[in-house]
Design brief:
This protein is an alpha+beta fold. The chain is built from 2 helices and 12 strands, in the order H-H-E-E-E-E-E-E-E-E-E-E-E-E. It has a 5-stranded mixed beta sheet with strand order 2-8-7-4-5, with no helix packed on it. A 3-stranded antiparallel beta sheet has the order 1-3-6, with no helix packed on it. A hairpin with a 7-residue loop joins strand 4 and strand 5. It binds copper (II) ion. Copper (II) ion (CU) binds next to strand 4.
């Protein structure tokens, strides 16, 4: 009988190394088909290559695929299919990060401190813990020619070292699931428009972390990171 002979043959193969491989193959063939998570993708819709931008600021629109970019995921542990946008102007490091963007496919980069002439915008998708997904990186070169270039303000040398303080939260307060944060700073002017531009004494922005003892961005598992100037500054 052919079938008997075949099964005896398979049994004898299974006793050998090659038989183990066949057994593994048979097991794989009987497993339900599992869809792999489609890779996140980003494309820059505007500006287009070599566009001349004559407005005050740089408006950016993107198309994103296979990523849920809701702001509520930012800072949580990494999860496939979740992430947000990192945008960098004329560089590829944290120093040129104009900001991160979530919950939207468009954003505006302030023209403050951007010199007229050619510039390169890079965008990529970052994981919840702000790790760049290098394979998603896209770039576009454009010509920035505003009617009136915006120079950065004069540096403000602080009288003493800048300090930040949290005004509205007490140690041990029970909060959630959402809470507002009221931060103030002395000897410091927060400016989102200067983010990712050259350092300017007396100016900067806030980073906010929850559930971490570290303030180094390279350390993974930072729970929440926001950077902005939309806080009360007294
Ligand atoms: Cu990020």
């Amino acid at each position: 009988m052919v079938s008997l002979g075949l099964s005896r043959h398979i049994r004898s193969l299974i006793r050998t190394g090659s038989g183990l491989m066949i057994a593994a193959l048979l097991l794989l063939m009987t497993m339900p088909f599992v869809h792999a998570q489609a890779a996140p993708e980003i494309t820059i819709v505007s500006p287009k290559a070599n566009d001349k931008i004559t407005g005050k600021d740089i408006n950016v629109t993107m198309d994103m695929k296979n990523v849920d970019n809701a702001c509520k995921w930012v800072g949580l542990p990494d999860k496939d299919g979740q992430g947000h946008i990192h945008a960098m102007l004329d560089g590829m490091s944290m120093a040129q990060l104009t900001n991160f963007y979530c919950g939207t496919n468009s954003f505006t980069i302030s023209g403050l401190g951007v010199k007229p002439g050619p510039h390169t915008l890079m965008v990529d998708i970052a994981t919840n813990t702000h790790e760049d997904m290098d394979k998603t990186m896209k770039m576009v070169k454009f010509d920035y020619q505003p009617a009136s270039p915006q120079a950065v303000p004069a540096a403000k040398k602080p009288a003493s070292a800048p300090t930040a303080k949290i005004n509205n939260l007490k140690d041990g307060a029970v909060l959630g699931p959402k809470f507002n944060l009221d931060i103030a700073a002395d000897n410091f002017t927060p400016s989102a428009d200067l983010e990712g531009k050259l350092n300017l004494e007396g100016y900067g922005h806030f980073h906010v972390f929850v559930d971490t003892q570290t303030h180094r961005l390279s350390v993974p598992r930072v729970q929440v990171l926001f950077s902005c100037d939309r806080v009360r500054n007294e």
